[in-house]
Amino acid sequence: MAHARISCSRADGSEYDVHLSGDLRGFDLRDDAIAYAKNWAREWLDARFG
After folding, report:
1. What's the whole-model pTM score?
2. Rounded to whole angstroms, how far apart are CA atoms 18 and 43?
3. What is the pLDDT of residues 24-48, one digit of tens each?
4. What are the extents of the domains in the chain?
5. Measured distance CA(30)–CA(17) in Å, rounded
6. Within 10 Å of residue 47's Cβ, how many Cβ atoms?
């Protein structure tokens, strides 16, 4: 499944997932899926961190 992922790193360097987008397989064009994922991530981050 293709998806966008926002993650953070702990002090020890280990990574953990914060949030996953929905499945991006539904897009016919790769560029459309990438544009959607970037917009989704920006909106998610803006909503939480301004």
Report:
1. 0.72
2. 14
3. 888 899 899 889 999 999 998 899 8
4. 5-49
5. 23
6. 8
